[in-house]
Amino acid sequence: MTRFIVHIDIDAFFAAVEVLLNPALQGRPVIVGGLPHERGVASTCSYEARKFGVHSGMALRNAYKLCPQGVFIRGNYQVYQSFSDRVFGILHEYTPDVEEASIDEAYLDLTRCRPLYPSFSRTAREIKARVERETGLKVSVGAAPNKILAKLATKRAKPAGYVEVEPGREEEFLRDLPIDALPGIGPKSQVILRMLNIQKLGDLWGMPRTTLHSIFGLGGEDLYLQSRGIDSRPVVSAAVPKSVSRETTFLEDLWDRRLLLAHLAYLCDRLTLALRQGHCYAHVIEVKARYSDFKTEVRRRLMLTPRQEMGDVYKIAEELFLPLFSGSRLALRLVGVKASDLVRARPLSLFEPYSDRQERLGAAMDRVREKYGFGSVLTVREKMLDAVYPFDRNRGFVLKTASLTK
Ligand code: TTP
Ligand code: MG
Known about the structure:
Blueprint: E1 5-10, H1 13-21, E2 30-32, E3 44-45, H2 47-50, H3 60-66, E4 71-73, H4 77-91, E5 98-102, E6 105-109, H5 120-135, E7 139-144, H6 147-157, E8 162-164, H7 170-174, H8 187-195, H9 201-204, H10 209-216, H11 218-227, E9 243-254, H12 257-277, E10 281-291, E11 296-307, H13 310-325, E12 332-343, H14 357-372, H15 380-388, E13 401-403
Parallel strand pairs: 2-4, 7-8
Antiparallel strand pairs: 1-6, 1-7, 2-3, 5-6, 9-12, 9-13, 10-11, 10-12
Helix pairs in contact: 4-5, 4-14, 10-11, 12-13, 12-15
Bound molecules: thymidine-5'-triphosphate (TTP) and magnesium ion.
Magnesium ion binds at residues 9-10, 13, 104.
C-alpha cells in the first residue's frame, strides 16, 4: 500500500524562537550559541545571518568575523524544548504515528488515518498552517510515500514551503538533487563521488550496486537505495505509557483534611505535568488511600473526554478522595493518584464545546516552571502545604514525607 508520510522541520529553530521572544530581532542576523568572543560554536542562526556565510557548527569567533553586526545570543535550551513540545503536541492530534526525529523535526504517517482525511495533501498543508499560526514559528514540510523522500522534500521546501513528491514522480524529483542532499553522506564520500564526477543523484543511478559496495562498503548499499528514493523504514512513534502515577507515603500518618487535600493537589499537579510532557490525555483517574492499619482503598473514574489539565484532574481526584477520607476512623499513611487509559490525541468532545483556556493556562505554567523550577508556581492549596513543609526545589515537599513520588 502506498503510504503518505509527512516530514516537518522548523526553520532556523533556536534563532526563530529568539525572534519570537524579542520581536525587535525580526529581520536581523541572529546567531545562537554564545557571545562573539566565547569559545564554542553557533548552534544555529537566522536566515539573515546565513547570507553572511554563518552556519551551524561554525566557531563563534569566525561567525563574528563574517557577521560583526550579528546579534549573538547564548540561548536557553529549556525554552526551545517547550516550543518543540508545543509543535509536537499539535502533530500528535493528527495521527498516533508521529516519530520525533530531533528537537525540531518529526515524521507523521497519515496512512492509517485515511477515513479522517479525504485529501492528505490538504491535511499536510493544514498541519503546516496550524503549527505556524499557533506557535508563531515557520516550518518547512515535505510529503512523500516514504521517509527519505519526505525529508528530501522538506529540504527542497526550505524556507517555509511545502513540497510533495507524488507516487510515480520520484525519479523526476530526485534526478537533479545534489548528492550532498542525502542525509548521512560524509565529506569523505563526497570527495570520492566528486572524483568520479558524480554530482547529482541521477548520476549515481548508472553505477552498479556491486561497484558502490566495493567503493563505499556498507555505506554503498545506503547510497544505492537512497539515491533511488527507496526506503521502507516505518514511522515509529514512542509508545504511549500504560499509566502514570504519583504517590506520597507520609512519615507520620496524617489527619488534617486541609493538608491531605493540599497533598492531593500537589500530586495531581505533578501527574498532569507528566501527562503534558508525554503529550498524553487520560481516560481514567484513580485515587488511592492507605490507612494507618495498612488497609488500602482505590476509587476510579472513567471519563469519556480524556483529560490532562490540573484543574480538571484535581476536581475529579477530590471528588474521589473525599468519601475515602471523610468519616474515616483512621489517619492516612499514603495518598496516590494515577492516570491510565492514556491516549495521544487531543479530545474532540461531542458534548462540550472545545475550549483551550485550561490548556493555555497549563502551557503557561509549564513554561514558567521550566525556567524557574516547579516551586515557582503553586496552587493555593499547594501554597498552604508550602507553609507547613518548606518546598524543596528539587525534591518537592519532602521534609515530612518518606518517599514522595515514584
Ligand atoms: P536544524 O533543523 O538542523 O537547523 P535549524 O532549524 O536551525 O535551521 P533549518 O532547519 O531551517 O535549516 O537544527 C535544529 C536546531 O538544533 C537548531 O535550531 C539548533 C540545534 N542545532 C545545534 O544545536 N547544533 C547543530 O549543529 C545543529 C545542526 C542544530
Ligand atoms: Mg530546523
